[in-house]
Amino acid sequence: MGLELFNTLILCLLVVVAVLSLWVRDLVVSAVVFAIYSFLMCLLWAEMGAVDVAFTEATVGAGVSTVVLIATVFNLKRKAKD
Amino acid sequence: MKKAAFILILCIGLLLAWAAKDFPSWGDPQSPASSSPVASHFIANTGVDTEVPNMVTAVLADYRGFDTMFETVVVFIAGLAVFSILRGGPKNRTRDREFVVDFEPDLIVTNTVRLIVPVIQIFALYVLAHGHVSPGGGFQGGVAMGASFILIALSWDLKTALARFPIERCFTVAALGIVIYAGIGLLSLFLGGEFLDYAHLAKIFPVSPEMARYHAMLGVEIGVGFTVTAIMFALYASLSTDGRMRDGL
Amino acid sequence: MFEDGSIFNQLLVERLNYFIYVVLLLIGLWAMIAKNNLIKKLIGMSIFQTAIILFYVSIGVKEGATIPIYLPEHDPHGSHAQLDSNQTDLLSHGAKVLEASAVPNYTNPLPHVLMLTAIVVGVATLGLALSVCLRIYRGYGTVEEDELLEKLEREDSRKAGGSNKRRPRRRTPANKGGTAGQSKRGQTTEKTKSDKPTPRRRQASKSRTKTNGPAKEQPKSSNKENDKTKPVKRRRPAKKPKEDES
Questions:
Q1: Among A10, A16, B67, C127, which residue's CB has the most CB atoms within a 10 Å radius?
Q2: What is the complex's ipTM, to 2 decimals?
Q3: Which pLDDT belongs to residue B222?
Q4: Nearest residue to C58 (alpha-carbon basis) of C28, C16, C100
Q5: What is the CATH number of the domain that holds C41?
Q6: How far apart are CA A18 and CA C45, in angstroms?
Q7: A72 shares contact with chain C (CB less than 8 Å)
Q8: Given an 8 Å threshold on Cβ–Cβ distance, is C98 in contact with B67?
Q9: CA dist., res. C109 & res. B47, Å (int)
Q10: B21 domain-assigned
Q11: Where are the domains of chain A?
């Protein structure tokens, strides 16, 4: 009963990765770390039994949205001030 | 500013944490969301009503078809808005970028992509068509298909990808997807049912009402897949070139 | 502190998942408010959104339930196959309404459906926000919020002053992204608002981009026609001075 160890581990990792993607100054690195965040989220949803949502997140969150973010940063300055 | 923001989110966090103690515990089968009659109805009746084993697809495309249709319209409008925001405005503001993309397409990369892309596209079609009995559907298949075009653009250059899928055709295909979706809805309207009430399609197709719903859902998913494919690629093409449709990433 | 019934026990042990959703949501909210870079704000927005989606999906979890796809014994098609494989008429008669005892075997599909579309719409709206960022960068040359506010303020005070003297928008000390040529640009091009880019443009292009062959062969008084006929494929021309004041 209750939260399993696997879920707890991933939830804690999620917080770490979320903070990390906002903490780094390089926007490309930020986008890539955000892809890791999305992938962990996908893993968590697959474990929760939401297979369709996990599939969507794997294609959209970890795939397309990373590419779109990097494509945008390509046209902007790569370094952020904070 | 940052201190004020910190205090603000701390207050919000305390409020939310205070509210969290009233929520049901993890995986409680008696929680209000799980014991609601709507969810139970969907779980119990999907098989009888539509013969679709995957309840998520059934609820997505049939029971809540209106919702999904306008979500697709939202995706379409967002793609159009990205295109027109970046296309219009001050022209010729050619700025230098920090990275200079100056390369010939790599032999190994392009040949690998040449092998991979057909597999990705077949997988995308499989996901789209097999969404009734396994995880998948129009959104996932469409995104995977769009990703294959993005992969072409990344490994060669954008011009190569745009030669295969021009940006004008993107929006034509996206609009066609919505037309397919709305057309199936309107067809069932003209056949005497309500909008998106697929069971009435059995009047013109030689199938039972349940199988009519089953197959109409496939048609609807194909429409969604068209729109999502085209818009994902248009999104990438617009954003990576800053709307100029050349010299992309 | 962690004995049964205390608020900490309730929050951090029994309902740890909700606590972490709250933390994720707050991280996203904090980034949207306090981060300086617009792209970082958008990443924060995505984290916020994902936290809410996570909350919704976890609401549908049931202990001991499987994914919301019918098992073979409940599968309408599976039951027909056993019933009669020849007569298609019987297809609709094979399926039965699931008995109430079997309902808890399946995860609640409704939150999944609601959130599935939300994810796809989320990436579309993220693209829209990124395109607005690109337009801001096109107009102001920065996506940092403080620089942006400074420039907007400058522009407002210029308009409020009503002076006819047009000052270039980019002539701010805060703009560190440019080169040495950029900071002087405003002074020199203020009077010559012609369509003729000065040699400064060449200078800037040399300093900023790793130019390749064709750039060096560029004639001194390059204009737009020359730009189009140049056989350059991947080279980006540098900033044009005159457009900074439009």
A1: C127
A2: 0.94
A3: 93
A4: C16
A5: 1.10.287.3510
A6: 11
A7: yes
A8: no
A9: 13
A10: no
A11: 25-76
Which residue out of A26, A44, A55 would a mutagenesis test of the B interface target, given it has the greatest number of B Cβ atoms within 10 Å?
Answer: A55
**Total tally of structural domains belonging to chain C:** 1
Residues 154-173 of B with CB under 8 A from C: none
Confidence of residue C175 (pLDDT cuts 50, 70, 90): very low
- What would the pLDDT profile of C206-229 be if each residue is shown by its tens digit? 444 444 444 444 444 444 444 444
Q: Is residue B28 part of a domain?
A: no
| Residue C57 included in any domain | yes
How many domains does chain B contain in total?
1
CB A14 within 8 Å of CB A36:
no
Q: Is C206 exposed, middle or buried (0-12, 13-18, 19+ CB in 10 A)?
A: middle
* The residue to which tokens 């021309």 are assigned: C237
Handedness of CA C96, C99, C104, C108 (dihedral sign): positive
Question: What is the arithmetic mean of pLDDT over B8-22?
Answer: 88
CB contacts of A60 in chain B (<8 Å) are 139, 143
* Inter-residue contact A45 to A33 (CB < 8 Å): no
Q: Would you tell me how many other CB atoms lie within 10 Å of the CB of residue B94? A: 16
**Closest by CA position to C62, among listed B2, B49, A50, B51:** A50
For B24, residues 6+ apart whose C-beta sits below 8 A from its C-beta are B30, B31, B32, B33
The answer to the question of residue B52 being in a domain is no
Give just the sign of the alpha carbon dihedral C132, C134, C139, C142.
Answer: positive
Asked whether the beta carbons of C212 and B104 are under 8 A apart, the reply is no
Q: Which amino acid appears at position B155 of this protein?
A: S
C239 in any annotated domain: no
Residue C24: inside a domain, yes or no? yes
Domain assignment of residue C123, given as a range = 1-64+106-164
Which secondary structure element, helix H or strand E, spans residue B187, and what is its range? helix B167-190
C-alpha angle with apex C125: C30 to B170, nearest 5 degrees?
A: 155
C83 located within any domain: no
Q: How far is A27 from chain B (nearest CA, A)?
A: 13
What is the distance, to the nearest Å, from the Cα of residue B16 to the centroid of all Cα atoms in its chain? Answer: 32
Question: Would B208 be classed as within a structural domain?
Answer: yes
Residue B187 domain boundaries: 64-87+106-244
Higher-confidence residue of C233 and B7: namely B7
Most A CBs within 10 A among C13, C20, C149, hence the mutation to make, goes to C20
Strand partners for C144: C37
